[in-house]
Amino acid sequence: MNQENKLILDIENLVVRYETEDGVVRALNGVDLQLGYRQTLGLVGETGAGKTTAALAMLRLVPDPPGVVECGRLMIDGRDILNLPSAKMDEVRGKDISMIFQDPMTALNPVFTVGEQIAESLQMHENMDKEASMKRAKEMLELVGIPGSRANEYPHQFSGGMKQRVVIAIALACNPKLLIADEPTTALDVTIQAQVLELMNELKEKYNTSMIMITHDLGIVAEVCDSVAVMYAGRIIEQGTLQDVFEHTMHPYTEGLFNSLPNIKNRTVMLKPIKGLMPDPTSLPEGCAFASRCDYATEACRLRQPELRHAGPTHKYACVAYEQEGFHIKRGKA
Amino acid sequence: MAESLLEVRNLKKYFKTNSGMLHAVDDISFDLQAGRTLGLVGESGCGKSTTGRAILRLIEPTSGQICFEGKDVTKLSRGQMRHVRKDMQIIFQDPFSSLDPKKTIHQIIAEPIRVNRILTNRHEIEDRVLELMETVGLAERLINSYPHELDGGRRQRIGIARALAMQPKLIVCDEPVSALDVSIQAQILNLLKELQQKMHLTYIFITHDLSVVNHFSNEIAVMYLGSIVEKASAEELFLNPIHPYTKALLSAIPVPDLSHKRQRISLKGEITSPVNLPDECRFANRCFECEESCRTGIPKLIEVSPDHFVACFKHGV
């Protein structure tokens, strides 16, 4: 087995821009991502960081126009996805890669029963007939904790948490190799969120699925992911194992994210928000996009785009400030 | 003990539905002292927002008393209520839908000042608007902008400035940060805290986010299906939760700390319908400590230790 085959996902230099009448929105500006089999990667960032665009690009679902995708390499399970004709792409989506969307209320079709919606992908990808696929659909429902007898009900008859379970059942029906979950629990209550995360963890183990978990919640990352990539303004600015990023934080933005979260163990700690706002993606600065909000920024930061460099075998960060002798951020260095 | 700014007694709000009475808020009582923050926590449908709105009489309560500075506001006429409402303001969850898209920031913030005739002179109003904008950290140049030109954090600042325009004593904050990104969320939370200290404000802070409420409140009331199931100071509630629902809620918070080990209590099922509730503990169906006796009636909120109240048959005295 050669090196290539050890990765379920291998992306090199992914660039996505939306060419709109109001200017060019630079959504992704050169993203490299590698994911090993059975690994779960957390893709973290705030609104507009490019998380969802990255997921759409992996499925080749970026709307064109206005979207323009440029990419050095996009391999999934050793297969070049980038140059597949769109008819072939239909075979990949739902079979090799599946996606769970943020809002279960709108992800389901209101005029088909949930059973039919699960059966649909089975009929398409597994060549099952109607009867066999409905039988399998009921098994899938049981698997996600919904009685199979409810397969003939419509989405509006289910609660939010139940709908998200249905969406998970659809995504897993064809036993995909890679599952992309885009904020799967953001619309749910905490106790229901806990149930859904538990279910996803369980199923991922059972079926050896690799997963990309898109979220803005570092707590969820700590709970379900093996590694994490932090995104800012269309770039990955820090990446590594959970230990790397949570306990040996390198990038000032990652530090800022942690400081913005209330500390559950010590309620007297003041929140330290990141000042200012995310830059406008139609006019990104020449240098580091975070420089204007960064407490450590130097003149060099504003002039040059930082490159992702290694801090350890698994840990990467993109920050120019470390070129200064003895530079370090405050977090964890007290 | 200081006089309470707000005393809520046996507040109920029922809605008539086709299938029966929906118990949105079912007999809740609490006191709130001036300058303090009460956090109302619970999941969707537990009645926390309805409680907040009923206190301002934006929704008419079915029964109960709401005494604000010793006056029962449920007995006031519309005109009198308008007068009292200057002292009680609200900040809404969604900064996108709670601002009139056809008005400029100046018009939005000036509206309550004009309507209540606090100031009548155009220049005085403008000065006051600018002063309020400065208080909440909005740049002066934005005064003629429209809400759609601004991001969520700035819009929420407008909502806060509008609430402050009346120099209120009490502000009901209904999920003020849940629509915002974490870095912006922290900015708004710090702003609200700062304003509280500067203007001696009293907050009712409604949220589903337990880590935010812990950070922000002096006291926390946990609600489930229209009732308060546990109430204590923030420290006490997090250190020593007693009600099974509170325990489950606390254990469900994802904590961004790898050293955090916990016993996850996972709740079975989902919140039951608040329509035609049976006379038993509302949490019985999902409770992991439930016994036969829990189904014999509705548990009352009992003080189990000083200032720590719990409504549970198994943990009452």
Task: Explain the overall architecture.
The complex is a heterodimer of chains A (334) and B (317). Chain A is of the alpha/beta class and 334 residues long. Helices cover 31% and strands 22% of the residues of chain A. Chain A has helices spanning 51-58, 86-92, 104-107, 114-125, 130-143, 160-172, 190-207, 218-224, 242-247, 252-260, 299-303; strands at residues 7-20, 23-36, 40-44, 67-70, 73-76, 79-80, 97-100, 178-182, 210-215, 227-232, 235-241, 309-310, 316-317. Chain A has an eight-stranded mixed β-sheet with strand order 7-8-9-3-10-11-13-12, with helices on both faces. In chain A, a hairpin with a 2-residue loop joins strand 5 (73-76) and strand 6. In chain A, helix 4 crosses helix 5. The longest helix of chain A is centred in the middle third of the chain and has 18 residues, at 190-207. Chain A is globular. The mean pLDDT of chain A is 89. By secondary structure, chain B is α/β, with parallel strands linked by helices. Chain B has helices spanning 48-55, 78-85, 105-115, 122-135, 152-164, 182-199, 210-216, 234-239, 244-252, and strands at 4-17, 20-33, 37-41, 63-68, 71-72, 88-91, 170-174, 202-207, 219-224, 227-233, 302-305, 308-310. In chain B, strand 9 and strand 10 (227-233) form a beta hairpin. The longest helix of chain B is centred in the middle third of the chain and has 18 residues, at 182-199. The model of chain B has no long low-confidence stretch (mean pLDDT 90). Classes of the chains: A alpha/beta (334), B alpha/beta (317). Chain A binds chain B through residues 46-47, 159-162, 189-195, 197-198, 216-223, 242-243, 246-247, 256-265, 267, 270-275, 277, and chain B through 43-44, 151, 153, 181-187, 189-190, 208, 210-212, 214-216, 234-235, 238, 248-249, 251-258, 260, 264, 266-267, 270-271.
